[in-house]
Every structure is written in C-alpha cells, then in structure tokens.
Amino acid sequence: MPDFHAEIRARLASLRMPPAQESDIVDELSQHLDDVYRDARHRGLSDGDAIETALEALSSDAALARALRGTGRIRGTESVAIGQGRRGNWLGALGQDLAFGLRLMRVRPGFSAAAILLVGLGIAATATTFSVVNTVLLKPLPFPRSEQLIAYWGTAPDKGLPQLDLPDGVFTYHREHTKTLQSVAAYDDGSHTITGQGDPERVRSAWVSYNFFTVLAVPPALGRAFTRDEERPNGGLVVILSDALWRGRSGASWSTICRTRSSA
Amino acid sequence: MLDLGMKKGSATLLILSLIEHEPRHGYDLSKRIESMSRGVLRFHVASLYPLLYRLEDRGLIEGRWVEKEGQRRRRFYRITPAGRKVLAAQRKSWAALVEAIGQVTGR
C-alpha cells in the first residue's frame, strides 16, 4: 500500500497549520486515497495506475489548500475509542456509542448473535466458577479458627483407592498419641430412618467420636455433647439432633421422643 | 459529469441526506454519491472534505474519530439536530424547485 501522507502534506504545506491539526487532516485524506487505491486495484488496475487514480482524486496541487483555507476552524484532535466518552460530555458520548453499537449489530446480525452468545456463555461460566471458588476456597468454614482445621484419611493409590476410612483402632491411636495436632476427632456420614412420630423419615446422619464438637469448637446449642463413656461399646445410643431436624420433626419441643434404626 | 464542488447547496443536501440515518466517513459518502448517481455526480477530495469541515463549522454535522482494534482510526460524520432541520428545509426547497422547473419546461 503506497503512503499518501507525504503527497498530501506537500499540498497543505502552504497553509502552515499546527502539527496536530495538520496530522488529523492528512490522516483523513490519506485514508480516502488508500480506499481509492484499494478499489482501483480491486478493479484490476496496476499499482501505478491505481496510484494515479488515487492522486487524481486530490484534484490540482493548489485546489486542496485553497479549499481548506476557507474552513478556518481548529478541529479537535482527540480520537475516541469505541466505548469512551468525550471529556465533559460523557453521557452524550455514551448515548452515541450505544446507538452506533446497535446499528453495527443490526448490520451484522449473525456475528452479533454469535458474540452475544459467547459473552453470555463466558459470563455464566465465570459466575459458576466464582461461586464454586467462593464457597470452597474463599468463604471460611463456619467454625472458630477454621484455618486450623484439617481433614485427613487413608489412601491406597496402588490399589486404585484414593480414599480409605481409617479403622477405629488407628483413629484412637492417632487421638491418643498425636504430637502434631492439638486434637483429633472422627466422622463417618451415613443415613438413618426416624420413626415414632408421624411418617418414617430417612435423614442424613453421621457417626462421630465423642470429642467431635470440642474439636470444632462448636458446643450444642441446647443440651450437652457426647461423653467419653458413650463412645465405648455398649455406652448407650445417644443422638444429637441438628437444629433443622429438631425444629421440623418435633416442632422444637423439649420432649421429643423417637426411635432410631440403623441404616442397612 | 457534474462537479459538485460548484453546487454547494445541492452538495449539502446530498451529504446531509446520506448521513441522516447513520454516520459515514468521507470515502463512503463519495462512493455512495457516485454510485447512486451512476457516475453523474462525483466529489473530488478537494471539494468533499472542505465541505464536510464547513458543515461541521456550521454545526450541521459532527465529526468523530472512531478507533477499532487492529484498524486505523476513521473519522465518521453524523447529522446534528440543526442539520436535520436544514435537511428538511432543503428537501422542501429542492422539491419545489424541481416542480417549478418541470412546469416551465413542460415535464
């Protein structure tokens, strides 16, 4: 692509314009000549003929400067990237940008639809990822000093078992002899069926060691936590209800009586 | 082929009508005028851009550089509310002129 800047500058030299103003006009006119050149080449003209066609569009040497001399106004030199407003009139410029953008979308509906779909998918994926990251990584656990809580389990990768429950004896040994952890509790989730009042109901449950709530530093809201004796075999079947179950099942009554049956 | 540089009134009408519905840059304007008039009307650069700058000075159009990623900036021109008023008035005058000439010439 030939450069028409010098040719145009030469024709405007007599005007002795400020550099910024001259630069704007030269930019605009050279782009016009670039388009003329490109169209001429597209029509099959040679490079030389296309350049001549472009320069013909400039008219005679003196005509351009003579015609521009009559305008006499210093034009603004700021370019506005799409999406940016003009200083001091950002609201008006925003309206213009929106209208311009909508017109462009109407002209290319297929591209616009694809772009909107991609942006929507991107937003959905980002929102989903953030909600997961926020819940899992950023939001702290609802326990005091939760940064000090860890969970660990057995593993047998050579047997294809990434996670193994520790036997009770191993857990008990860890709890009694650990030197690196302040205290250790055990947790094994499952489910039970509650009967005795109303329809039987399958609920989530967990077997926990007696010191579970002590390790989490969250005492029961009502009643007491487990005792050491209750962890022993035949130590008695003692249940701590969740707040939701207590309120839903028994209407938050102190005299809740129920029978539990172990899950199969 | 008529040189539009000599007929500023009609040139203003052409420019304003072409940017009535959407902004355009200078080359787009010259191409449209030439193609829509089937080559009868043609703008030289030395006629077109001084006219655009004068229309800007009068507040009938507003030029704005637009940058798109990966492209050179282009100056687009859009009609202003004052320009729309002038356009409406010029359309009326032009229609009246054409009708008057037609009546005189019998066409």
Molecular structure report:
The complex is a heterodimer of chains A (264) and B (107). Chain A is mainly α. Helix content of chain A is 46%, strand content 11%. Chain A contains nine helices and six strands; from the N terminus they run ααααβααββαββααβ. Chain A has helices at 5-12, 19-42, 47-56, 61-69, 90-107, 109-138, 168-177, 212-216, 243-250; strands spanning 80-81, 154-156, 161-164, 187-195, 201-208, 259-261. In chain A, the strands form two sheets. A three-stranded antiparallel β-sheet of chain A has the order 5-4-6, with no helix packed on it. Chain A has a two-stranded antiparallel ribbon with strand order 2-3. In chain A, α1 (5-12) crosses α2 (19-42), α2 crosses α3 (47-56) and α5 crosses α6 (109-138). The longest helix of chain A has 30 residues, at 109-138. Chain A is rod-shaped, with a radius of gyration of 39 Å. The N and C termini of chain A lie far apart (81 Å). In chain B, strands 2-5-4 form a three-stranded antiparallel β-sheet. Chain B has a two-stranded parallel sheet with strand order 1-3. Chain B has helices spanning 8-18, 26-36, 45-57, 81-105; strands spanning 2-3, 24-25, 41-42, 61-67, 74-79. Chain B is of the alpha+beta class. Chain B has four helices and five strands; from the N terminus they run βαβαβαββα. Mean pLDDT of chain B is 87; it is low at 1-6. Classes of the chains: A mainly alpha (264), B alpha+beta (107). The A-B interface holds A 24-25, 27-29, 31-33, 35-36, 39, 57-60, 63-64, 66-68, 70-73, 75, 78-82, 96, 100, 103 and B 5, 22-23, 25-27, 30-31, 44-47, 49-50, 53-54, 56-57, 63-68, 72-75, 78.
